[in-house]
Amino acid sequence: MEIPKAILKKLNIDTVPGYEQMLEMQVEAYNNREGDLKGYDCRICKNKGYIAKISDGNEVLSECKCMKIRETLRRIMESGLEKQLRECTFKNYEIWAEWCNVLKDTAVRFTEKEKGFLFMGGQSGCGKTHLCTAAVGQFIKKGHSARYFVWREDSPRLKALVNDTSYTTEINEYKKADVLYIDDLFRCRQNRIEEVSDADVKLAFEIIDFRARNGMLTIISSNIDIEQIIDIDEALGGRIFQMSGDFCMNIPNDRNKNYRLRKIC
User: Fold this and answer.
1) Under 8 Å between Cβ of 209 and 114
2) What is the distance, to the nearest Å, from the Cα of residue 22 to the centroid of all Cα atoms in its chain?
3) Cα 74 from Cα 145, distance rounded (Å)
4) Of 18, 64, 122, 134, which residue is the least packed, with the fewest Cβ within 10 Å?
5) Domain 68-261 of CATH type 3.40.50.300
6) Domain segments of the chain: what residues?
7) What is the rounded distance in angstroms from the CA atom of residue 140 to the CA atom of residue 146?
8) pLDDT, tens digit, for every residue of 118-136?
9) In the structure, what pLDDT confidence band is assigned to residue 169 with cuts at 50, 70 and 90?
10) Distance between CA atoms of 15 and 205, rounded to whole angstroms?
11) Greater confidence, 259 or 140?
């Protein structure tokens, strides 16, 4: 059927387009259309979640990289960490002593990397969680998917599933995320490292060893330092230390470095 000249004029073309031209027009029309996905404004797919392209003479849809970000944001909202991610930014980190600058500068520089570990361990209340969370936020903005592993909450759950068929699926979510943040690894009361169980070590090693062997971006905070983690398990601590390199920050125990107590110290 011949296309009416009025329609051709409206499309701003003079002749009937061939099949390839029609495909290109369809792809362009789809990619220019605004979508209705909420929560993150992506100008690549215009909030549709997919991008059209031509493959082997056909129009196909490929998932936009923003879908990783949307999934990360959904999980953050479900975990209740949305407020923490919004408030814990590099801009909001208060510099109240010179050593704070060193911690912040280290975390900021780490966000420029594509692989490796950032470790911050030691004194409670010195801003480790704030800076680690800020680093996660920067990676999310760059298009990386991210997972939080809150040690006190997630380790008991995973250890309880170790003999369940769902264990592999659950732990792979942490092993294979673009960016993983393990918050408060081996949380100990008053640095009593003897409280860390063999099951704790086995779980941590399975996740951290996988990510170390694959050079994956991993952020770890703890109230104990790297030497204490090496005392708990030399193989585990060695991997963290090796993968962190210049991004291994040990903050000596000193109440004067506890932001929460600085008014009474």
Assistant:
1) no
2) 40
3) 11
4) 18
5) yes
6) 5-64, 68-261
7) 7
8) 999 988 878 889 999 999 9
9) very high
10) 66
11) 140
